[in-house]
Amino acid sequence: MYLHLGQDTVVRVDEIVGIFNMETSTISKTTRNYLADVQKSGKVFNVSMELPKSFVLCCDKHGKETVYISQISSATLLKRTGYMDEIANV
Q1: CA-to-CA distance for 14 and 46, rounded, in angstroms?
Q2: Pairing relation of β-strands 65-70 and 44-46?
Q3: Concatenated DSSP letters of the chain
């Protein structure tokens, strides 16, 4: 299954490590440093030029990390994955 992150960007759901709220997660210095490091290494892709609301950390089967910055909220992206629906059915 794929998750639409905005504009023309989709990622495989099984490659998603985490979906993070940009406002609350960047309070941590560790998260800010991580985002700065991956930005410097060219692993960050900004999906839209609008105000960022979330970032999605992905890792492919070869261990390559990619961070996508999206204008879509983390709550909406989480709903789109269907993950919460799966938990509710357990």
Answers
A1: 20
A2: parallel
A3: -EEEEETTEEEEGGGEEEEEEHHHHTTSHHHHHHHHHHHHTT-EEES-SS---EEEEEE-TT--EEEEEESS-HHHHHHHHTHHHHHHT-
In which residue are the tokens 């879509």 written?
72
Model confidence pLDDT, tens digit, residues 44-70: 999 988 999 999 999 999 999 999 999
| Residue 56, number of CB atoms within 10 A of its CB | 24
Backbone angles phi, psi at 5, to 5 degrees: -95, -5
Which of 26, 24, 45 lies closest to 34 in space, CA to CA? 26
Q: What predicted TM-score, i.e. pTM, was given to this entire model?
A: 0.88
Q: What angle do CA 61, 75, 84 make, to 5 degrees?
A: 70
